[in-house]
Amino acid sequence: MRANELIQEIELIGDVEFPKSAAELRLQLAVPHSKLGDFIVYFHSDDDIRLLFLVDSKKQLAAIAFFISKMNDRVWQAKNTATYEPHRGKKLAAQLYKIVKTDFHKSIQSDLEQTSAGAKLWTSDLPDIGLAPKIYDHTTDRIIDPKTQKVNAYPGYESPEIKRYSWIIERNDYYPEQNLIKNQLLLPITGRWSNR
Predict the structure, then answer these.
(1) Which domain holds residue 20?
(2) How sure is the predictor about 143, in pLDDT bands with cuts at 50, 70 and 90?
(3) What is the pLDDT of residue 6?
(4) What CATH number does the domain containing 116 carry?
(5) Which residue, 77, 17, 10, 22, is CA-closest to 50?
(6) Is the pLDDT of residue 75 over 70?
(7) In sequence order, which residues have a C-beta less than 8 Å from that of residue 17 and are 6 or more positions away?
(8) What is the pTM of this model?
(9) Which of 7, 30, 50, 187 is found 20 to 30 A from 158 (Cα to Cα)?
(10) Do 153 and 10 form a contact (C-beta atoms < 8 A)?
(11) Spatial distance between the Cα atoms of 66 and 49, rounded to a whole number of angstroms
(12) Does residue 180 lie within any of the structural domains?
């Protein structure tokens, strides 16, 4: 897709997972960043790519979160997350997002294609660990709190609301000066994962 072909809806796609073998190859380039309980957090940056990994005490890859840096590195657009066995169900992807907020001080914007697990991350797992995702309305430039206003961010192709919303973690208690509305949100482009 060309950069000028901007699409703004969130498309629910099948349960595609970033392959563990590909994630392990990228992990080899990463350096230790911090600890998270029994896990070691690894980080890798290359041009506009930002990768976070969780490695367990047995030195096995537990989770990965991949972002694209936007707006001079102030916003990281989430491209893919995966949690690998035996660590599924521990909200590790959400913990990686929290590290992006607390350690790296970045705003996060959702990708425009999400699996059902990705939708669950934004609508359930992130709020469960204390982050407060909001919905960005590209039509009106408003930030909508889904707790106070019901909005269907996944309207489907038949809806007139298509090409309208994305999720953001734009403000939080730690960094209230971050406000994407002061600097018009850079509309993202989308792309499906491949095993390249």
Answers:
(1) 11-169
(2) confident
(3) 30
(4) 3.40.630
(5) 77
(6) yes
(7) 82, 115
(8) 0.79
(9) 187
(10) yes
(11) 7
(12) no
